[in-house]
Amino acid sequence: MTLTQIISTIISFAIGMGIGSCATMPYWRLPRGEISSGKWYGGKRSACVHCGVQLRTRDLFPIFNWLITRGRCFNCQAPVNPVYFFIELSCAVLAALVYLRFGISESAILVYGMCVCLVILAATDYSFRVFPNALMVVFVLFATNYRVLVDHHLINMLQQFVFTVLGLILFYNSYQKICGKSFPGLRYLQMLSLAALCLPLSAYAGFFLLFLALALFAHIFSRSGKSYYGTVLALSLVLHLFYPGMLWGWLK
Asked: For the chain, what are the domain ranges?
C-alpha cells in the first residue's frame, strides 16, 4: 500500500465517522416518527435521553466521546446507548473498506450508501425491532442505481425482484397454512426481497444461504432476548456487496 493510499484510507475513515455521527439521528428518531434533520429544517437538537441536556458539538462524535466519557453522559453520568458507538464505528470502518475495494468511483458512493442504510437498519432492528420505511426507500434508491450501473440492464433486476417477491410470498402463505399464524419476521422478508435489487442471481443465492446459516447460529446461541437477525442480514448483504461471488463460487 502506497503512502497516498494510506492517507486516503485515513481520510475515508474520518469522513465515515462524520457520516456515522449523522446516521445516529435517523436510528433514534425514525422509529419514533420524529424529524431526523437535527437542528436544521425544523428539527430539534440532539439531547441526552435521560436528563434532556443538549449535546455539545464534541458529544456528536461517539467514538471519541465514548473514550473520553467512558460511555456516560457528561451531565448526568447516565450510561449512553452503545448502539451509537456501533453505528459510527461501523460507518467509519466501512468507508475505509469501500475506498480500498472500489476506490473513488460511482460504485463506491452507491455501495457505501447501501452500507450506511444497512448499519442503521441493523441498529433499529436490534433496539426497536423495526425497519423504518423511509430508510428502506433510501436503500432501494441506492440499490437500483447500483445495479443499473453494474449490469446495465434494468429488466434483469426487475425480473429477479419479482421472482424473489413471489417466492417469499409463497413461503409466507405456506407458513400461515402450516403453522396457523402469521410469520413473525415479515420485515426480514421485505429486506430479503429488496436485497434482490442490488445483487445478481448467483450472488443473491450465496447471500441467502449465508443469511440462513448465520440466522440459525444467532437463534441457537442468543440468550439475551434481543433480535440479531437484522444484524445478520446486514452483515451477509454487505459481504456480498464487496464480494458478490464469494460463497456461490466456493459452493460450485
From this structure: 1-104, 142-252
Report the candidate in 245, 248, 236, 234 with the shortest Cα–Cα distance to residue 187.
234
Other beta carbons within 10 angstroms of residue 245's beta carbon come to 14
Mean pLDDT of 180-188: 88
Kindly report the backbone phi and psi dihedral angles of residue 54, in degrees, each rounded to the nearest multiple of 5, phi listed first.
-70, 140
> Whose grid coordinates read 402469521?
182
Per-residue pLDDT, averaged over 169-187, amounts to 90
**Using CA atoms, how far apart are residues 63 and 71, in angstroms rounded to an integer?**
9
Question: Exposed, middle or buried by CB within 10 Å (0-12, 13-18, 19+), for 121?
Answer: buried
| Rounded distance between C-alpha atoms, residue 44 and residue 50, angstroms | 16
Cβ atoms within 10 Å, residue 66: 17
Closest to 228 measured CA to CA, from 214, 238, 208: 214
CB 205 within 8 A of CB 79: no
91-108 residue pLDDT tens: 999 999 999 999 999 999
Q: What is the rounded average pLDDT for all residues in the chain?
A: 85
Task: Spell out the alpha helix ranges (H) of 180-228.
Answer: 186-195, 201-221
Give yes or no for a contact between 90 and 24, defined as CB atoms under 8 angstroms apart.
no
Query: Could you report how far apart the first and last alpha carbons of the chain are, in Å?
Result: 32
pTM of the complete model: 0.89
Give Cα 147 to chain centroid, integer Å.
18
Q: Which amino acid does the sequence have at 28?
A: W
pLDDT above 80: residue 16: yes
The pLDDT assigned to 61 comes to 67
